[in-house]
Amino acid sequence: MKLDVQYRAFSCRLTRPLRTANGDIEERSGFLIRISDGTDTGYGEATPLAGWTESTDACRAALDDAVDAASNGQSAVLDAVDDTAAARHGISLALGDLAATRDANPLYRDLGALERVPRIPVNATIGDGSPSETVDAVERAVDDGFSCCKLKVGRDEVDEDIDRIRRVRDAVGPDVDLRVDANGAWTFDEAERALDELDDLGVSILEQPLPAGALSGLAELRGNGVAIAVDEGLLEHGVDAIESAQAADVYVLKPMALGGVDVARRVAAWVAESNRSAIVTTTIDAVVARTAAVHLAAAIPNVLASGVATGDRLADDLARDPVFIDGGTAVIPQTKGLGVENVWTEP
Ligand SMILES: O=C(O)CCC(=O)C1=CC=C[C@@H](O)[C@@H]1C(=O)O
Ligand SMILES: [Mg+2]
């Protein structure tokens, strides 16, 4: 089928930078994609992030190839972006939105959900900061109804991080689910030392304590009360290698970095076959990709609280957010397709 593929660049600033052990995220720039079959239209988003996907230039070049391939139909368009994760995410999402819109299905049903899913659990995302900033941010999140908060660690000394988490635990009590994400910043010894303390503090999940390559180290860290999650490591190794190394309890799925919600859905199926749990997060994307991640999470049975409640970190966005964050859950859009409206306004 002949398709019309178009894209345009966008840029959204964060209201405040997300501080991580791997640097600060201050702005998200990418490409909004529109694919039409002459009757229906689908939208996608390709928002590269340094260290996680191809560069902005490589993403743009791949999208240009996809535009050129449009007269040759859907598989040619997908082939054009096969080696560029963010571009593939954007194109495959626009095609998925187009198909779901045509079928009058919410996207998550086309991604395999067998029944209606009203909501999914979500976590609050708390960037690295001073102890008092962290306590304030977690208290605000709990006041807003979140029962799960993911804290960034790994920029400072381990003892300082532990002290910060202890202050958070003391402030919010035992019932709030705390996770931490070190973005690969720790050595094995630091991670081992941190784990004992994190266990005592009732932290449920430690995300990527060691660099992405360190599978055997991750395997050795497993087994105390804190579940070990892979994020960067999944992109480097894939599920098979991680399972062979027995290196993870939990998999973090970032559709933008994996090459699309369709790819991420397949990865989630392998994760479930291995009896592991999945968390869906984004690369702090704009509304089109963020909403797609929400649909993906809705399509994964028993998905853990997911990192998709980041819309309020953007100072501006591509369109109105169709996902209502309510009491630590995201309410799933039930309209056809992705459910993001008026995203492509004519200049
Ligand atoms: O998972 C979340 O709560 C939100 C997303 C998030 O934490 C991240 C998005 C982008 C880059 C990363 O530093 C970070 C992560 O590592 O998970
Ligand atoms: Mg992470």
Automatic annotation (TrEMBL):
Pfam families: MR_MLE_C (PF13378). Residues 131-228 form the Mandelate racemase/muconate lactonizing enzyme C-terminal domain. Signal peptide: none annotated. SUPFAM superfamilies: Enolase C-terminal domain-like, Enolase N-terminal domain-like. Its cofactor is a divalent metal cation. The active site is at 152 (proton donor), 254 (proton acceptor). Its EC number is 4.2.1.113. Keywords: Lyase, Magnesium, Menaquinone biosynthesis, Metal-binding. It is an enzyme of class 4 (lyase). SMART domains: MR_MLE (SM00922). GO terms for molecular function: magnesium ion binding; O-succinylbenzoate synthase activity. Mg(2+) binds at residues 181, 207, 231. Pathway: Quinol/quinone metabolism; 1,4-dihydroxy-2-naphthoate biosynthesis; 1,4-dihydroxy-2-naphthoate from chorismate: step 4/7; Quinol/quinone metabolism; menaquinone biosynthesis. One of its GO terms (biological process) is amino acid catabolic process. It catalyses: (1R,6R)-6-hydroxy-2-succinyl-cyclohexa-2,4-diene-1-carboxylate = 2-succinylbenzoate + H2O. InterPro entries: Enolase-like_C_sf (IPR036849), Enolase-like_N (IPR029017), Enolase_C-like (IPR029065), Mandel_Rmase/mucon_lact_enz_CS (IPR018110), Mandelate_racemase_C (IPR013342), OSB_synthase_MenC1 (IPR010196). PANTHER family: O-SUCCINYLBENZOATE SYNTHASE, O-SUCCINYLBENZOATE SYNTHASE-RELATED. Belongs to the mandelate racemase/muconate lactonizing enzyme family. MenC type 1 subfamily. Converts 2-succinyl-6-hydroxy-2,4-cyclohexadiene-1-carboxylate (SHCHC) to 2-succinylbenzoate (OSB). This is o-succinylbenzoate synthase. It comes from Halovivax ruber (strain DSM 18193 / JCM 13892 / XH-70).
